[in-house]
Amino acid sequence: MQPDLLYLLDISGSMNQAYPGSGTKLEAAQQAILTLNEMVAGLDNGSRVALVTFRGSGRGRGNPPQYNTYITVKQGFTTNYARFNRRLLQLYASGGTPTGEALETLTQYLPGAWDQANRPVVILLSDGVPTIDLDRHGFSDQYVQQIGLYDSNGDFYSPPQVRGMGQYFGVYDEYAGEPLADTMVAVQGLKTALPPALVY
Prior knowledge:
The chain is α/β, with parallel strands linked by helices. The chain has helices at residues 25-43, 81-89, 99-109, 141-144, 159-163, 178-193; strands spanning 3-10, 18-19, 23-24, 48-56, 69-78, 119-125, 168-169, 174-175, 198-199. Strand 7 and strand 8 form a beta hairpin. The radius of gyration is 17 Å and the shape is globular. The two termini are 18 Å apart.
């Protein structure tokens, strides 16, 4: 069974930050995808690739402020690696990071998109700091980064535990752990909805 690879790529503003030896984080992610595409294309076994990007607006609106999100299928599953790669290299980064919503959207999109004769493989490329939760509330990445996901035994905290961690944001009556907990729940939802999928 050959894989159908779907790249879920973070194009939020923090992906513009420098990455050692590779320019920006986004450029490092693009290079990683190009390298993997070259390997998959070389197998010549009918494996396909797809690209979904996600980011949020840089400014919230309303009271409490909510942030628009942009989760886009930039390229559906294809074996046209050259066209895929051109679209990949046209991307730019801006705004916040709605990782949980991106995963939920993918959970809805993927069942009707992949060839069930193949194995779906989801590869999330991100700098790992979700900043917009499922309510589209925005949180400062500096506070989200301070939250640890593992207990003293090296086991994951549960989503409800993470949800109550970190800096308190009175405007939402929520803590900085909220977008992390939403992402944890969304990952589990993807795995439950698509048991054959491999998620990296």
